[in-house]
Amino acid sequence: MAINYPNGKKFSPPKDKPVSQKKRDVSFSNRGKTLEDELNETNTYYLQRGLAVIHKKPVPVQIVRVEYPSRSAAVIREAYFQAPSTTDYNGIWQGRYIDFEAKETEIRTSFPLKNIHEHQVHHMADILRHGGLAFLIIRFSSLDRYFVLPFEVLETYWKRMAAGGRKSMTIDEIEESSIEVKPGAFPRIDYLSVLDQLKQ
């Protein structure tokens, strides 16, 4: 396969240095995927088996300037967010509307609440008020642990922070007030298996 620079010049590796093939770590516990990748795969699994219809929400972006360096290529040069996004995913499961935000952290001992925005908290409160299910899926990447955190729990700790309290949830608080989902193969993050415990 030929590789070219953007200006069309052909790339050729230096002759004195062989091109090294970096060995990829494909172990089960570290596949190099983000939480979003894992959830997208999980949602495809659910859709293909008729279990739920859940999709990642597109980010509302307005494109203002596009350049066409060639007939077959377009490059976006300027774009703006039209409005604050709400949450990452939404859909329907067993006749119930679900809406959730996916967050990951490398911190081992706590989850920073600054990762959630105030408008997202208001949005999830609205979902709950209208009978839907709202929650967070949190991945502690360094621990390879996944938690489904009900919105009601998040709201409690959000109010604590707003009142001048701690700006994060400790891992102990998360273990006590959320449901841990063990990663598997198919699907990777089977969060639907715990949603019955969130139903009002």
UniProtKB/TrEMBL annotation:
It is found in: Cytoplasm. Belongs to the RecU family. It catalyses: Endonucleolytic cleavage at a junction such as a reciprocal single-stranded crossover between two homologous DNA duplexes (Holliday junction). Pfam families: RecU. The keyword DNA repair applies. This is Holliday junction resolvase RecU. The gene is recU. The record marks 103 as: Transition state stabilizer. It comes from Planococcus dechangensis.
